[in-house]
RNA sequence: CGGGGCGUGGCUCAGUCCGGUUAGAGCGCACGGUUCGGGACCGUGAGGUCGGCGGUUCAAAUCCGCCCGCCCCGACCA
């Protein structure tokens, strides 16, 4: 493809609306253009990359027996009412104004609606159907370029099995395929156990790419490979020990002490001696008290996993109403009508200090066995950096990550709601057992950029590079340069390389170099007068910056060493 | 939805606090010329309802009100 007749809208300036590297570079390199918040056009170079990624996905999905389908984005709202997901998604789902229809944010319903009519026997199963299509979600706040958009391209596949063992197999096949896909796309990724969230189901894993720009937080062990989303991650931090002796409850006057830090300072005790009390409301009616070690952080996803959905922090006025005290002086002693749970780490501990439910007072020597009636201990605390790994004891890292893939064992929820039943070998009617497996296509690209760029621009892996080779004809007004460049361009095309040829005759050398580095093709071939006199050109590897002078006759040889 | 920031040629910005010639700069763009291995230089030129609507005023990019849009933090995130 020749530069002079193509659309490569690169720009030098950093776009004002972009803050993370992938977003900045996708805009600067002319891959995408914003149309509205969270909505992007893919320009020719960006679209080539999308195709590369999609091709890899298709190959690996086909390899596990996946069959590609194309499903409607426009769905009758009735279909979504059958699974109750109109309410589940709420404002996240786009609703069409002048028809009773919605824009599909995912496709379990459509899949089931097809399956119920055609997959009637266990002999029709298993099946894996996949799609690579635009999904629509009315995100409250789109952000980070293509990482969280309102319209985005997703590979979703759906497995349908007649047995739970079959589901396990389909799930494992997807896990293996995903490893291949992300590896082939040049991503450094890790897999974490995840919370299934509103999708429901029995198991799920996320494929994560470590990046400062990621929205998820994961604990990872550099030593043994343990990795988990902090929504489920645990560490080997020890539980609180039981102190010796029979310690009596005592009231402690703590004027104007509100926070754990202030309490530590005021009483001159370690934070481990403090039992932190957090108050929540469930379903707007059930007050909940959560007890944690003073300097531990509650993870609200873990709280929801323990107690169910619809939990929110209690409002200040509710706190006073239900406890008689203000936040900062709350505790388990004397509190009535609260559902009370505690983090595993304070299990059966004693000698702790908690709030007295009376402003400016705390209570010492609280004993969780003797003084507190609990509705259960749960893992509620969020893992912190450098805590010992639960598997090997080495210090954990806590990192941000981009979720590029998520695989779920859905089970029978959707099949039951939509009455997708089959007859098993005994003639019994059973719901189809489903799995669903997503990949964010743009997220792969953004993640690759986050992991592969420098101050000059993009650095593509060959597998998803829009072109393999970027030819720079330096002074195209020079006949020798023009002729040699055109020749080499043709030779490379004849050898099945994908080539972009900067044949512009109205920009200077420096301009072309900058554009080439910004666009980031793996190999650049620089054709200038001086080298040409000796029958040579320069070959530069974008990633390393390494340059070498190569005889024109030897180019194909050289490229074979650098590419493929 | 709460908090913050921003909106001026295609891009990046100045001008707004303190109203007052014809609204500026750099880059980009067009034309001519000089250059030709790291966004080169000279000259000429085109390009703006200053986000929109309303108000105050002799006079509004500038002050006031409402609305819209975009970005960031938070809430939310199958």
Counting DSSP E segments of at least 2 residues, the number of strands comes to: 31
Annotation field: number of helices: 15
Q: How many separate domains make up the residues? A: 3
Helix content: 25-40%
Query: CATH superfamily of the largest domain, please?
Result: Bira Bifunctional Protein, Domain 2
Structural class: alpha+beta
Give the CATH class of the largest domain.
Answer: Alpha Beta
Strand content: 25-35%
Overall form: globular
Distance between the termini: 20 Å
Which stretches of 5+ consecutive residues score pLDDT under 50?
none
CATH structural fold name of the largest domain: BirA Bifunctional Protein, domain 2
- Rg, nearest Å: 30 Å
Mean pLDDT: 93
Please name the CATH architecture of the largest domain. Answer: 2-Layer Sandwich
* Biggest beta-sheet profile: 9 strands, mixed
Q: How do the helices and strands line up, and which of them pair or pack?
A:
Elements: H1 21-28, E1 32-36, E2 39-42, H2 44-63, E3 67-68, E4 74-76, H3 77-82, H4 85-89, E5 94-95, E6 101-103, H5 108-118, E7 127-136, E8 151-161, H6 164-184, E9 190-193, E10 203-210, E11 216-220, E12 227-229, E13 250-253, H7 260-267, E14 275-282, E15 286-293, H8 300-307, E16 311-313, H9 316-323, E17 339-343, E18 352-355, E19 361-366, E20 377-378, E21 397-411, H10 413-417, E22 421-423, E23 429-431, E24 433-440, H11 441-451, E25 453-454, E26 457-458, E27 469-473, H12 479-494, E28 499-502, H13 509-519, E29 523-527, H14 529-533, E30 536-541, E31 547-551, H15 555-562
This protein binds one RNA strand of 78 nucleotides through residues 9, 11-19, 34, 36-37, 85, 88-89, 91-92, 105-106, 108, 135, 137, 139-141, 143, 148, 196-200, 215, 406, 408, 436, 438, 472, 474-478, 507-515, 517, 526, 528-531, 538.
């Amino acid at each position: 493809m020749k530069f002079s007749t193509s659309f490569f809208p690169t720009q030098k300036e950093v776009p004002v609306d972009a803050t993370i590297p992938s977003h900045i570079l996708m805009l600067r390199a002319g891959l995408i253009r914003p149309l509205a918040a969270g909505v992007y056009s893919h320009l020719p170079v960006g679209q080539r990359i999308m195709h590369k990624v999609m091709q890899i996905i298709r190959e690996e999905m086909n390899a596990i027996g996946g069959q590609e389908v194309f499903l409607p984005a426009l769905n009758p709202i009735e279909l979504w009412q059958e699974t109750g997901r109109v309410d589940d998604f709420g404002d996240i789902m786009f609703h069409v104004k002048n028809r009773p229809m919605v824009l599909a944010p995912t496709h379990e319903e459509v899949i089931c609606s097809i399956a119920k009519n055609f997959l009637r026997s266990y002999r029709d199963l298993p099946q894996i159907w996949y799609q690579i299509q635009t999904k629509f979600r009315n995100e409250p706040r789109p952000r980070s370029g293509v990482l969280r958009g309102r319209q985005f391209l997703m590979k979703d596949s759906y497995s349908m099995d007649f047995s739970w063992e079959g589901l396990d197999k389909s799930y494992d096949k997807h896990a293996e395929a995903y490893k291949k896909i992300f590896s082939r796309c040049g991503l450094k990724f890790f897999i974490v156990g995840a919370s299934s969230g509103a999708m429901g189901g029995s198991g799920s894993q996320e494929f994560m790419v470590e990046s400062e720009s990621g929205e998820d937080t994961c604990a990872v062990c550099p030593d043994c490979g343990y990795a988990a989303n902090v929504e489920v991650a645990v560490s080997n931090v020890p539980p609180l020990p039981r102190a010796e002796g029979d310690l009596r409850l005592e009231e402690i006057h703590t004027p104007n002490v509100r926070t754990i830090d202030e309490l530590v300072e005021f009483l001159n005790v370690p934070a481990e001696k403090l039992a932190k009390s957090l108050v929540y409301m469930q379903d707007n009616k059930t007050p909940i008290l959560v007890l944690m070690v003073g300097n531990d952080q509650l993870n609200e996803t873990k709280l929801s996993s323990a107690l169910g959905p619809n939990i929110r922090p209690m409002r200040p006025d509710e706190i006073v109403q239900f406890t008689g005290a203000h936040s900062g002086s709350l505790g388990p002693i004397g509190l009535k009508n609260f559902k009370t749970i505690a983090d595993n780490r304070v299990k059966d501990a004693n000698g702790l200090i908690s709030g007295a439910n009376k402003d400016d007072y705390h209570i010492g020597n609280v004993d969780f066995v003797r003084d507190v009636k609990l509705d259960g201990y749960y893992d509620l605390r969020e893992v912190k950096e450098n805590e010992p790994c639960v598997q090997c004891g080495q210090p954990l890292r806590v990192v941000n990550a981009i979720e590029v893939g998520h695989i779920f064992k859905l089970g029978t929820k959707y099949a039951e709601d939509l009455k997708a039943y089959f007859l098993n070998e005994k003639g019994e009617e059973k719901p189809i057992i489903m799995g669903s497996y997503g990949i964010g296509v743009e997220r792969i690209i953004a993640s690759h950029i986050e992991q592969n760029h420098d101050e000059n621009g993009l650095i593509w892996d060959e597998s998803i590079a829009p072109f393999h080779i970027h030819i720079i004809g330096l002074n195209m007004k020079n006949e020798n340069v023009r002729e040699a460049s055109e020749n080499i361009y043709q030779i490379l095309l004849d050898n099945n390389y994908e080539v972009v040829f900067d044949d512009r005759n109205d920009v200077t050398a420096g301009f072309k170099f900058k554009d080439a580095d910004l666009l980031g093709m793996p190999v650049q071939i620089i054709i200038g007068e001086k080298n040409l006199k000796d029958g040579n050109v320069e070959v530069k590897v974008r990633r390393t910056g390494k340059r070498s002078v190569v005889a024109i006759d030897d180019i194909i040889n050289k490229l074979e060493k650098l590419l493929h």
